[in-house]
Amino acid sequence: TCGICVEKCPFDAIEIINLPQELDDDPAHRYGENAFSLYGLPIPEEGKVTGILGPNGIGKTTAVRILAGEMVPNQGNHESPPDWDDVLERYRGTELQDYIAAVRDGDVKVSRKPQYVDEIPGQFDGNTRELLEHTDERGELDYLIDRMEIGPVMDQDIDSISGGELQRVAIAACLAREADFYFLDEITPYLDIGQRMTVARLIRELADEENKSMLVVEHDLAILDLLADSLHIAYGSPGAYGVVTPPKSVRNGINEYLAGYLDNENMRIRPSPIEFEEHAPRPVNRAQTLAEYPDVTKSYGEGEFSLDVEGGTIRKNEVLGIVGPNGIGKSTFAKMLAGSLEPDEGDLDVALDISYKPQYIDIDQPMRVDAFLSSITDQFGSSYWDTEIAQPLQLERIMEQNLTDLSGGERQRVAIAACLSDSADLYLLDEPSAHLDVEQRVQAASAIRRYAEQQSATVMVIDHDIYMMDLLADRLMVFDGEPAEHGRAGQPQAMRSGMNEFLSNLDITFRRDERVGRPRINKPESQLDREQKREGEYYYSL
Ligand code: ADP
Ligand code: ADP
């Protein structure tokens, strides 16, 4: 394998692979004979935001437990493990020396945001206020609550708030504490782009103004790019070994990661690059119509949320991206298409059979993955299903596990597979990127696209990861308005005009990286930002 996957290559093409040199040395930690080994450690830096980019299961949590002083890294010697003094010897003369010395002396306090916020309600009984009140160690809690707009849910029970609210509460709880080193394991799942940018700013403030060390694992590359000062790439074979590189510049780190080749390490981590279209794809008009719908309005009652949708056409065979902030009526529209919600005005006489993957996945059946998926489709286990669904979604390894034992990323992949395996007219996926690493996002995007092409299926995808949307969508439907109050949606439109409308609502422009053409968020008010706004080109270069 190339070092990314332990299974069969999902890209069907592996020739290379030089094993990393580090593997000749002792690891920083090995859990046991033939167990997972971690090579290299990230280096927290005062006043800096350090990013980690790499797949799930590659040892990021292990590294942080070491840096938090929760476990002594055994240097590969699990039989007679060293103590902190021995470890300090090993790191003497390296950039980690001072940090390890502080850990040994018990001088490092760490505050952490866990990866899977969905697990918090199972661990905490009470409302948001009660969860947050013990965290206010810096006297900044009210500010964080205000900036992250948590106010409205302060008196709600933790088990009744949405995933996006839970994510913001968990981030506030982490940032409110007094610590030397803050570790945030994914900040974007369930948040819309505006919320992602706010969280990124708050993390930056803590580094810039309080001189704290911030370490962030993130798979939304546009946000990681914006947020971090430097970047460690983590690569290897998930579950077997992981290598954390020395820090790189964020730009080079992300470029190398996408290119699939780490320059300094002389290491190929993927057979082919991940590429983005610099110029807007040409609109295709050949497709047949799946459904035509008139102008539609819906209100949940006097003074409640209301939505206006401009009539439009959904095409057969397309992947229609749906973008817009949280709470703007995207799910409301989907429910009307599915016929489970009646519009007030406009006859949505489409009665489409919809297969739906919700944003928050509640799978609590005590059932094995294989039993669950075979109960959905007769195709289960066929070579077509294996090639098109199971392999790109990396399901082989988890087939025999119970649904209840899956991690968030595993559950997401099973839910995408379940949604696509059902027979329907329209497949609607709400935030398929949540908890998937970059590799998994790319593979899920290509599986969804291939599925739409081969099955002549129509797919609608709601997502907030711009890179994912770029890889996925043929056209866009843009929602805008005042969240929780009023939403508006225009007709589905071509990628260029859709991106322009969506990003102008957000007041964000993207430039293209000179080397690899990937989209990067412009600094507000920079020359490019102003130029592009003037020209009305927010995303694609001309
Ligand atoms: P990440 O945070 O990158 O997802 P982790 O550090 O959590 O990765 O885990 C890396 C690997 O180490 C996984 O394969 C995991 O199963 C294994 N692992 C984690 N903790 C232990 C442990 N206490 N004993 C043995 N293996 C472990
Ligand atoms: P999105 O999918 O864009 O996040 P939704 O369509 O789920 O938005 O919700 C839009 C707004 O409508 C939100 O403020 C939500 O709280 C509100 N809402 C959703 N369902 C109902 C309902 N059954 N009754 C009243 N308000 C609702």
Task: Provide an overview of this structure.
- The chain is an alpha/beta fold.
- Helix content is 32%, strand content 18%.
- The chain contains 18 helices and 24 strands.
- Strands 1, 2, 3, 4, 5, 6, 7, 8 and 9 form a 9-stranded mixed beta sheet that branches. Strands 13, 14, 16, 17, 18, 19, 20, 21 and 22 form a 9-stranded mixed beta sheet that branches. A two-stranded antiparallel sheet has the order 10-11.
- Strand 1 and strand 2 (37-39) form a beta hairpin.
- The longest helix has 18 residues, at 193-210.
- The protein starts with 28 loop residues before the first strand and ends in a 7-residue tail after the last helix.
- 47% of the residues are buried.
Question: What's the SSE blueprint?
Answer:
Elements: E1 29-30, E2 37-39, E3 49-53, H1 60-67, H2 84-91, H3 97-104, E4 110-113, H4 120-123, H5 128-133, H6 141-147, H7 163-176, E5 181-185, H8 193-210, E6 213-217, H9 221-227, E7 230-237, E8 241-244, E9 248-249, H10 250-259, E10 261-262, E11 267-268, E12 289-293, E13 296-299, E14 306-309, E15 312-315, E16 319-323, H11 330-337, E17 354-357, H12 369-374, H13 383-390, H14 408-421, E18 426-430, H15 438-454, E19 458-462, H16 466-472, E20 475-482, E21 486-489, E22 493-494, H17 495-506, E23 510-512, E24 519-521, H18 527-535
Parallel strand pairs: 2-8, 3-6, 3-7, 4-5, 5-6, 14-21, 16-19, 16-20, 17-18, 18-19
Antiparallel strand pairs: 1-2, 7-8, 7-9, 10-11, 12-15, 13-14, 20-21, 20-22, 23-24
Helix pairs in contact: 2-3, 8-9
The chain binds adenosine-5'-diphosphate (ADP) (2 copies).
